[in-house]
Predict the structure.
Amino acid sequence: MKVPPFSLSKQLSDLGPDLDAAVLKVLQSGQYIGGQEVQAFEESFAQIIGVANAVSCNSGTDALVLALRALEIGPGDEVITCSFSFFATAEAISLVGARPVFVDINPANYLIDFSQIEKAITSATKAILPVHLFGCPVDMDQLMKLANEKGLKVIEDCAQASGAKWNGKSVGSWGDIGCFSFFPTKNLGAAGDGGMATTQDDGLARRMKELAVHGMPRRYLHTALGYNSRLDAIQAAVLNVKLPKLNEWIQQRKDIARRYLEALKDFPGIELPSLPDERGFHAWNQFVVRIKRFEVNNLAGAIDFRQLNLDFRNGSTSFNPRDCLKECLQQKGINTIIYYPIPIHEQPAYGEFEGIKSLPVTEKTCKQVLSLPIFPEITVEEQDYVIDTLGGLLRSANIT
Ligand SMILES: *Cc1c(COP(=O)(O)O)cnc(C)c1O
């Protein structure tokens, strides 16, 4: 059996005719930029998130950049965020000329460590940028309380968290601005790139709208240097077809997560994702486990590890058990992904970056995490195959 990390085929067979019709309608209308589909999607998305405004743009990365620009964050300013995230989180901060200040994560849930935030605040700090990583919501009661006390803005990175909630309110409705991505593998995916910035503040919404179209409040009048960052009408049409399915898809992701949690709970050497307390509604964009130490030789008894494509760095004979397990799963047809193998602060792009300190929890986490296949259309047989194969490998290994 082969299990991919993500697949669109079933979704396409269910929604295919509706998607075909929606895309064809846009093609035949000749309205490729802006128009009814884009406006309708912005209105429905704002309603689902529970905010007054949703401003569409070309990607989740652009949504972050537009949010930072609208809040007038730039050179000389600092923004507190995590190094354990997709690169774009920090890249957006750097692209507007501000400085990302990385704090460590809570090892239990991979989210920003509240005990580190206060220590990282300086006179230059303008905002906190929490990431609802893997679809797990950050404790927004605590975060907003801290930000309000310190007079800081809040930009939520909701790229992986469409459908997640904290205390009954959707992520992206708590901070000044919420930033969403419609990259195809996200919980709500377009047929290409797309993004959205959500806000209660009409002024911020207007500024983001203008910045997304060359800083142009009216035709050929440019009041700021902006971007060309629009959501295509075709993408909006696709998203209008998919949005009504979001809740059902999140429920399916929840069911899969519950099965994995139940079936894998008694295996040593693996740490399963921890659930938020009852205030948190997890959207399960990823199911991320931690692989602890174990004897690779015993694991090799179950599989010929000499055939594995492992990386023996610097002639070292010890290698990462997570990488070994990933290779074993790959050989058995299960394609897992590592989100993320290198922390942002250790990326070459930030190599010359001054003031980077080590982030021990983040660094250790990058060496241990492995994401199991989770997407709404994964079959029960495929889930069982993942559980049995992974369970078998762990059982054959001598866990220490
Ligand atoms: C995907 C992602 C982004 C960027 O979204 P794009 O639409 O790919 O630009 C930003 N932050 C996080 C955490 C992401 O996962």
